[in-house]
Task: inverse folding
């Protein structure tokens, strides 16, 4: 990517960063701390004041993505099917998923999921009825979100521990974290009182402007 940008003279000076670095740049005042992203996928990225970095999570939907919308949707689906065969009792979750996909019988879930060849974003969209249930106080949906919050907190705590960061600035981003006040509040409960209040980054792309300004400050164009 960098070679291409330089070959087409995209700019006088180019750098290539991961999509989490702009979140830290936009969501922290000094460009260091923890960035926690939860959308269709999930990832945590940490940067120290002296520039050391670390990624936790971000392994993709087969190897990880705990705390993501896709993970939440899968856990909701499994709770629904377990309810259908009697292993669980979350009838509200089952009913909400069937209604969202306009199905009438739980058995139809098999064909809809497996033969429908649903892409990950389509499956992750199941977070919409689950979040609506949570907003209404449904205990099963709230339990699913509690696990999501715990998984995200574990990533952030791991990054802070490994980078030896105490009370680091925290920047949040991603569609799932942006959509649920309960999830953000529960995340902070899981992290504990020692953590600073987070900043939510609505437009991570704005962080690229911050990164570009810092690049100019350290490597001015002659």
Result:
């Amino acid at each position: 990517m960098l070679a291409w940008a330089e070959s087409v003279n995209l700019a006088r000076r180019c750098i290539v960063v991961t999509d989490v670095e702009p979140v830290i740049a936009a969501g922290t005042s000094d460009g260091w701390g923890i960035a926690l992203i939860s959308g269709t996928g999930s990832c945590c990225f940490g940067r120290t004041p002296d520039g050391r970095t670390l990624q936790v999570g971000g392994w993709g939907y087969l190897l990880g993505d705990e705390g993501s919308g896709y993970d939440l949707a899968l856990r909701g689906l499994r709770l629904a099917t377990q309810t259908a065969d009697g292993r669980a009792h979350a009838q509200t979750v089952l009913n909400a998923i069937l209604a969202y996909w306009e199905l009438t019988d739980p058995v139809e879930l098999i064909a809809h999921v497996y033969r429908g060849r649903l892409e990950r974003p389509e499956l992750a969209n199941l977070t919409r009825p689950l979040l609506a249930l949570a907003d209404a106080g449904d205990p099963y949906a709230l339990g699913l979100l509690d696990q999501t919050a715990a998984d995200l907190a574990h990533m952030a705590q791991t990054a802070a521990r490994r980078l030896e960061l105490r009370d680091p600035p925290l920047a949040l981003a991603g569609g799932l974290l942006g959509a649920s006040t309960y999830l953000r509040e529960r995340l902070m409960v899981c992290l504990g009182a020692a953590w600073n209040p987070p900043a939510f980054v609505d437009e991570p792309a704005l962080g690229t402007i911050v990164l570009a300004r810092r690049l100019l400050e350290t490597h001015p164009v002659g």
